[in-house]
Design brief:
2 domains, five-stranded antiparallel sheet, Immunoglobulin-like, mainly beta, about 280 residues
Protein backbone atom coordinates (compact mmCIF):
# COMPACT_ATOMS: atom_id res chain seq x y z
CA UNK A 1 0.00 0.00 0.00
CA UNK A 2 2.84 2.38 0.85
CA UNK A 3 4.42 1.52 -2.52
CA UNK A 4 1.24 2.42 -4.37
CA UNK A 5 0.92 5.71 -2.51
CA UNK A 6 4.55 6.55 -3.22
CA UNK A 7 4.12 5.73 -6.90
CA UNK A 8 1.01 7.89 -7.05
CA UNK A 9 2.91 10.81 -5.51
CA UNK A 10 5.70 10.42 -8.05
CA UNK A 11 3.18 10.52 -10.92
CA UNK A 12 1.62 13.68 -9.48
CA UNK A 13 5.04 15.27 -9.13
CA UNK A 14 6.02 14.45 -12.73
CA UNK A 15 2.70 15.75 -14.04
CA UNK A 16 3.14 19.01 -12.09
CA UNK A 17 6.66 19.48 -13.41
CA UNK A 18 5.49 18.80 -16.96
CA UNK A 19 2.96 21.62 -16.66
CA UNK A 20 5.50 24.06 -15.33
CA UNK A 21 8.11 23.12 -17.96
CA UNK A 22 5.75 22.86 -20.92
CA UNK A 23 5.72 25.15 -23.99
CA UNK A 24 5.78 28.83 -22.99
CA UNK A 25 3.97 31.68 -24.66
CA UNK A 26 5.18 32.79 -28.07
CA UNK A 27 7.65 35.58 -27.59
CA UNK A 28 6.07 38.98 -27.93
CA UNK A 29 8.20 40.75 -30.55
CA UNK A 30 6.89 44.12 -29.41
CA UNK A 31 8.70 43.61 -26.11
CA UNK A 32 12.05 43.09 -27.90
CA UNK A 33 11.39 46.01 -30.23
CA UNK A 34 11.90 43.90 -33.35
CA UNK A 35 9.03 45.11 -35.47
CA UNK A 36 9.60 47.15 -38.66
CA UNK A 37 8.45 50.74 -38.21
CA UNK A 38 7.58 53.87 -40.17
CA UNK A 39 6.78 52.07 -43.43
CA UNK A 40 6.61 54.48 -46.37
CA UNK A 41 5.89 53.80 -50.04
CA UNK A 42 6.69 55.86 -53.14
CA UNK A 43 5.08 54.70 -56.38
CA UNK A 44 5.57 55.24 -60.07
CA UNK A 45 4.22 53.51 -63.15
CA UNK A 46 4.01 49.77 -62.29
CA UNK A 47 6.67 50.07 -59.58
CA UNK A 48 6.99 51.03 -55.94
CA UNK A 49 9.82 51.87 -53.56
CA UNK A 50 9.21 50.56 -50.04
CA UNK A 51 11.08 52.09 -47.08
CA UNK A 52 11.02 51.11 -43.41
CA UNK A 53 13.05 51.36 -40.22
CA UNK A 54 14.43 47.94 -39.18
CA UNK A 55 14.19 48.70 -35.45
CA UNK A 56 16.08 45.53 -34.46
CA UNK A 57 19.50 45.03 -32.88
CA UNK A 58 19.67 41.24 -32.98
CA UNK A 59 20.37 38.68 -35.69
CA UNK A 60 17.61 38.19 -38.25
CA UNK A 61 17.30 36.24 -41.49
CA UNK A 62 15.79 39.11 -43.45
CA UNK A 63 12.43 40.67 -44.28
CA UNK A 64 9.24 39.65 -46.03
CA UNK A 65 7.48 42.35 -48.03
CA UNK A 66 3.73 41.84 -48.44
CA UNK A 67 1.94 43.55 -51.35
CA UNK A 68 -1.66 42.39 -51.40
CA UNK A 69 -4.97 43.44 -52.89
CA UNK A 70 -6.67 43.21 -49.50
CA UNK A 71 -5.56 44.51 -46.06
CA UNK A 72 -3.52 42.02 -44.02
CA UNK A 73 -2.42 43.80 -40.86
CA UNK A 74 -5.83 44.16 -39.21
CA UNK A 75 -6.70 40.56 -40.04
CA UNK A 76 -3.34 39.09 -39.00
CA UNK A 77 -1.83 41.39 -36.35
CA UNK A 78 0.24 38.66 -34.69
CA UNK A 79 3.45 36.89 -35.66
CA UNK A 80 1.91 34.27 -37.92
CA UNK A 81 0.24 34.13 -41.32
CA UNK A 82 -1.58 31.34 -43.17
CA UNK A 83 0.45 29.57 -45.85
CA UNK A 84 -1.85 31.01 -48.51
CA UNK A 85 -0.47 34.51 -47.78
CA UNK A 86 2.84 34.69 -49.62
CA UNK A 87 5.34 37.57 -49.57
CA UNK A 88 6.15 39.52 -52.72
CA UNK A 89 9.80 38.46 -52.40
CA UNK A 90 10.41 34.73 -52.98
CA UNK A 91 13.23 34.54 -50.42
CA UNK A 92 13.82 36.72 -47.34
CA UNK A 93 15.17 40.12 -48.36
CA UNK A 94 18.50 40.74 -46.62
CA UNK A 95 18.26 44.53 -46.78
CA UNK A 96 19.81 47.24 -48.94
CA UNK A 97 23.51 47.98 -49.31
CA UNK A 98 23.58 51.31 -47.46
CA UNK A 99 24.58 50.62 -43.84
CA UNK A 100 24.52 54.31 -42.91
CA UNK A 101 20.89 54.87 -43.88
CA UNK A 102 18.39 54.29 -41.06
CA UNK A 103 15.84 52.99 -43.58
CA UNK A 104 15.81 49.74 -45.52
CA UNK A 105 14.79 50.08 -49.18
CA UNK A 106 13.08 47.53 -51.42
CA UNK A 107 12.03 48.04 -55.06
CA UNK A 108 8.97 46.14 -56.28
CA UNK A 109 8.40 45.91 -60.02
CA UNK A 110 5.88 44.28 -62.34
CA UNK A 111 2.83 45.73 -60.58
CA UNK A 112 -0.34 47.07 -62.18
CA UNK A 113 -1.43 50.67 -62.45
CA UNK A 114 -4.94 51.62 -61.33
CA UNK A 115 -5.03 48.87 -58.70
CA UNK A 116 -4.99 49.51 -54.95
CA UNK A 117 -2.31 47.62 -53.05
CA UNK A 118 -1.76 47.21 -49.32
CA UNK A 119 1.90 47.10 -48.30
CA UNK A 120 3.47 45.86 -45.06
CA UNK A 121 6.76 44.30 -43.89
CA UNK A 122 7.68 41.62 -41.34
CA UNK A 123 11.03 40.48 -39.97
CA UNK A 124 12.00 36.86 -40.72
CA UNK A 125 13.72 35.37 -37.66
CA UNK A 126 16.53 32.77 -37.88
CA UNK A 127 14.04 30.01 -37.01
CA UNK A 128 11.80 31.20 -39.91
CA UNK A 129 9.14 32.62 -37.62
CA UNK A 130 7.81 36.08 -38.37
CA UNK A 131 7.61 39.27 -36.38
CA UNK A 132 4.45 41.25 -36.00
CA UNK A 133 3.77 43.46 -39.03
CA UNK A 134 4.79 47.03 -39.66
CA UNK A 135 2.16 49.65 -40.27
CA UNK A 136 0.26 49.05 -43.51
CA UNK A 137 0.06 51.58 -46.35
CA UNK A 138 -2.51 51.65 -49.16
CA UNK A 139 -1.14 52.87 -52.51
CA UNK A 140 -1.96 52.93 -56.21
CA UNK A 141 0.75 52.75 -58.86
CA UNK A 142 0.84 55.35 -61.60
CA UNK A 143 3.13 57.83 -63.36
CA UNK A 144 4.91 60.32 -61.10
CA UNK A 145 7.44 62.95 -62.16
CA UNK A 146 8.17 66.49 -63.28
CA UNK A 147 7.20 68.17 -66.53
CA UNK A 148 7.70 71.61 -68.06
CA UNK A 149 4.94 73.05 -70.25
CA UNK A 150 5.47 75.91 -72.64
CA UNK A 151 2.74 78.44 -73.34
CA UNK A 152 0.05 76.98 -75.57
CA UNK A 153 1.08 76.69 -79.23
CA UNK A 154 4.63 77.90 -78.47
CA UNK A 155 6.27 74.46 -78.79
CA UNK A 156 5.45 70.79 -79.22
CA UNK A 157 5.58 70.47 -75.41
CA UNK A 158 2.57 72.60 -74.60
CA UNK A 159 0.45 69.70 -73.34
CA UNK A 160 0.83 66.44 -71.42
CA UNK A 161 -1.11 63.18 -71.39
CA UNK A 162 -1.07 61.58 -67.94
CA UNK A 163 -2.47 58.32 -69.26
CA UNK A 164 0.20 58.03 -71.96
CA UNK A 165 2.83 59.58 -69.65
CA UNK A 166 4.25 61.73 -72.42
CA UNK A 167 4.16 65.21 -73.91
CA UNK A 168 1.46 65.92 -76.50
CA UNK A 169 0.24 69.05 -78.24
CA UNK A 170 -2.24 71.24 -76.37
CA UNK A 171 -4.98 70.41 -78.89
CA UNK A 172 -4.33 66.65 -78.85
CA UNK A 173 -7.36 64.54 -77.87
CA UNK A 174 -5.30 62.87 -75.11
CA UNK A 175 -4.02 66.10 -73.60
CA UNK A 176 -4.91 66.74 -69.95
CA UNK A 177 -3.94 70.39 -69.38
CA UNK A 178 -2.16 73.36 -70.89
CA UNK A 179 -0.51 76.56 -69.68
CA UNK A 180 -1.34 80.15 -70.56
CA UNK A 181 -0.32 83.54 -69.16
CA UNK A 182 -2.18 86.80 -69.61
CA UNK A 183 -1.66 90.27 -68.07
CA UNK A 184 0.83 88.90 -65.58
CA UNK A 185 -1.44 86.09 -64.36
CA UNK A 186 -0.56 82.43 -64.97
CA UNK A 187 -3.25 79.85 -65.64
CA UNK A 188 -3.53 76.08 -65.93
CA UNK A 189 -6.41 75.14 -68.20
CA UNK A 190 -8.63 72.29 -69.28
CA UNK A 191 -8.12 71.25 -72.93
CA UNK A 192 -11.85 71.81 -73.52
CA UNK A 193 -11.17 75.57 -73.57
CA UNK A 194 -9.43 75.03 -76.90
CA UNK A 195 -12.29 73.08 -78.46
CA UNK A 196 -15.43 71.17 -77.59
CA UNK A 197 -14.01 67.87 -78.84
CA UNK A 198 -11.16 67.92 -76.28
CA UNK A 199 -11.14 66.61 -72.71
CA UNK A 200 -13.32 68.44 -70.20
CA UNK A 201 -10.94 68.12 -67.27
CA UNK A 202 -11.57 69.99 -64.02
CA UNK A 203 -8.93 71.72 -61.91
CA UNK A 204 -9.19 72.65 -58.25
CA UNK A 205 -6.63 74.51 -56.17
CA UNK A 206 -6.07 72.93 -52.76
CA UNK A 207 -5.77 74.80 -49.44
CA UNK A 208 -2.58 72.87 -48.71
CA UNK A 209 1.15 73.59 -48.71
CA UNK A 210 4.17 71.42 -48.16
CA UNK A 211 5.79 68.33 -49.60
CA UNK A 212 4.13 65.60 -51.61
CA UNK A 213 4.22 63.27 -48.59
CA UNK A 214 2.45 65.87 -46.46
CA UNK A 215 -0.19 66.75 -49.05
CA UNK A 216 -1.09 63.26 -50.23
CA UNK A 217 -1.85 62.18 -46.66
CA UNK A 218 -4.31 65.05 -46.25
CA UNK A 219 -6.01 65.31 -49.62
CA UNK A 220 -8.40 62.44 -48.87
CA UNK A 221 -9.82 64.44 -45.95
CA UNK A 222 -10.79 67.41 -48.12
CA UNK A 223 -14.27 68.09 -49.44
CA UNK A 224 -13.50 68.70 -53.10
CA UNK A 225 -15.82 70.47 -55.50
CA UNK A 226 -16.26 69.76 -59.20
CA UNK A 227 -13.48 72.22 -60.02
CA UNK A 228 -13.10 74.70 -62.88
CA UNK A 229 -11.76 74.63 -66.43
CA UNK A 230 -9.25 77.39 -65.65
CA UNK A 231 -7.31 78.13 -62.45
CA UNK A 232 -4.88 80.97 -61.72
CA UNK A 233 -1.72 79.53 -60.16
CA UNK A 234 1.40 80.63 -58.32
CA UNK A 235 4.59 78.88 -57.29
CA UNK A 236 3.96 76.39 -54.49
CA UNK A 237 0.27 75.84 -55.29
CA UNK A 238 -1.15 72.32 -55.15
CA UNK A 239 -4.02 71.30 -57.44
CA UNK A 240 -6.10 68.27 -58.31
CA UNK A 241 -6.86 67.64 -61.98
CA UNK A 242 -9.85 65.33 -62.48
CA UNK A 243 -10.66 63.62 -65.78
CA UNK A 244 -14.14 62.64 -67.03
CA UNK A 245 -13.44 58.95 -66.32
CA UNK A 246 -12.76 59.62 -62.63
CA UNK A 247 -8.96 59.55 -62.71
CA UNK A 248 -7.02 62.19 -60.75
CA UNK A 249 -3.66 63.89 -60.85
CA UNK A 250 -2.11 65.69 -57.89
CA UNK A 251 -0.03 68.63 -59.16
CA UNK A 252 2.36 71.12 -57.60
CA UNK A 253 3.54 74.32 -59.30
CA UNK A 254 7.33 74.21 -58.93
CA UNK A 255 8.56 77.17 -60.92
CA UNK A 256 8.11 79.56 -63.86
CA UNK A 257 10.74 80.59 -66.37
CA UNK A 258 11.09 82.98 -69.28
CA UNK A 259 13.32 82.03 -72.20
CA UNK A 260 13.42 84.42 -75.15
CA UNK A 261 10.03 85.84 -74.13
CA UNK A 262 8.54 82.30 -74.03
CA UNK A 263 7.15 81.70 -70.58
CA UNK A 264 6.88 78.13 -69.26
CA UNK A 265 5.72 76.37 -66.10
CA UNK A 266 7.39 73.50 -64.25
CA UNK A 267 5.11 71.02 -62.49
CA UNK A 268 5.37 67.98 -60.26
CA UNK A 269 2.59 65.46 -60.90
CA UNK A 270 1.33 62.16 -59.50
CA UNK A 271 -1.34 60.53 -61.66
CA UNK A 272 -3.61 57.73 -60.44
CA UNK A 273 -6.19 56.21 -62.75
CA UNK A 274 -8.18 54.51 -59.98
CA UNK A 275 -11.62 55.90 -60.59
CA UNK A 276 -13.17 57.91 -57.79
CA UNK A 277 -10.38 57.54 -55.19
CA UNK A 278 -7.72 60.05 -54.10
CA UNK A 279 -5.04 57.51 -53.22
CA UNK A 280 -1.61 58.83 -54.15
Amino acid sequence: MRYRIGFFCVVITIFTLSLSCGPGKIKDESASGCIPEDLQVDVNSKTMDVYWKPNCDRLISGYNIYISEAPLVDRYPGGSLPQSVEPFNRTPYSGDTDPDDEYEHFIAEGLENAKKYYVSVRIVNPDRTLSKPSNEVAVVCGPTGEIELSMRYKSDRDGYSFDRNEYVRADDVDNDLYFFSNNGVDYLNSPARLGGFLKVNRLQKLPLRGTFEQVRSRVTDLSLTAGDERVAVKEGDWLVVSTPDGSNALIKVLDFSDDNTKRSIKLFFAYRSLSGEMVF
